Amino acid sequence: MNSVTLPGGEKVPALGLGTWRMGERKRARADEVAAVRLAIDLGIRLIDTAEMYGDGGAEEVVAEATEGRREDLFIVSKVLPGNSSRAGTISACERSLARLRTDRIDLYLLHWRGTVPLAETVDAFERLQRDGKIRHWGVSNFDAADMAELWKGAGRACAANQVYYSASRRGVEFDLLPWQRDHDVPTMAYCPLDQGQLASDATLAEIGARHGASAAQVAIAWLLAQSGVIAIPKAVRPEHVRELVGAGRLRLDDADLAQVDRRFPPPKRAQPLAIV
Ligand code: NDP
Asked: How many angstroms is it from 192 CA to the middle of ligand 1?
């Protein structure tokens, strides 16, 4: 499986599993735990979650699914902007650690930018790092101007920026991705299937047919072909989980990439960041 190098040199897998909308309903819990377990059984090592998802419920799903197998996993979670003051970030992290039933979060992100000064949140991240409660920190939903501002302050240890990025939502390619590549900050691509829609795209299906793959697999393989990008698709249905993991083995060729460009042309000008 492809990997992406974090600023400190650590390699992380370029394909992980998202958990948004998990942990919201008791009735769905067993299927969600089974989905995360299946993904791990099939080789997934990076799991993305957040205190926001299911009001902590998704972190509990992750805890249940990863029990006894924490060691070789890379767990990402996020603090809500409303909790991101110096003291608030530390308490939010401790609540997440308790729900995740672990002693450390591998990558802890500010979910999106709020009104708390960035320096305060970064200060709390550094304290959590010194205390061994998080290993790396980063941000999410930051555009190129936000990243530049972070860099001017104390933000140079930022290990990743998680943004909306898929074959059909390519705005970040204009300015944000080049900035992040220049500064060695990996991009985590959320909604890599455009919230499931790309699974029924006819052009991606046509490309997939040449490789014995599905449209969803082409959408993921396309992201994995972009340097410095980590894709975190979410799936609960077992057949979806299997397909997504299989996408890690699919290699698109130049003709495939050119066909994606014709279907979804790269941006010609700066665009506001896509958000969900
Ligand atoms: P995705 O683009 O990953 O799409 C998920 C949807 O696609 C689900 O409905 C899933 O169905 C479906 N799906 C998965 N695999 C297949 C397949 N092979 N064929 C057909 N359909 C499929 O959207 P998400 O919004 O979940 O984004 C991924 C992750 O990114 C989130 O889970 C979360 O971890 C993160 N995220 C971060 C945000 C942020 O602000 N930082 C914002 C949004 C997401 P099913 O579940 O039924 O199997």
From this structure: 7
Asked if 83 and 92 touch (Cβ cutoff 8 Å), the reply is yes
Ligand 1, atom 26, lies closest to the CA of 234
Tens-level pLDDT at each residue, the chain (276 residues): 799 999 999 999 999 999 999 999 999 999 999 999 999 999 999 999 999 999 999 999 999 999 999 999 999 999 999 999 999 999 999 999 999 999 999 999 999 999 999 999 999 999 999 999 999 999 999 999 999 999 998 788 999 999 999 999 999 999 999 999 999 999 999 999 999 999 999 999 999 999 999 999 999 999 999 999 999 999 999 999 999 999 999 999 999 999 999 999 999 999 999 999
pTM tops 0.85: yes
Instruction: From the CA of 50, give the closest atom in ligand 1.
Output: 34
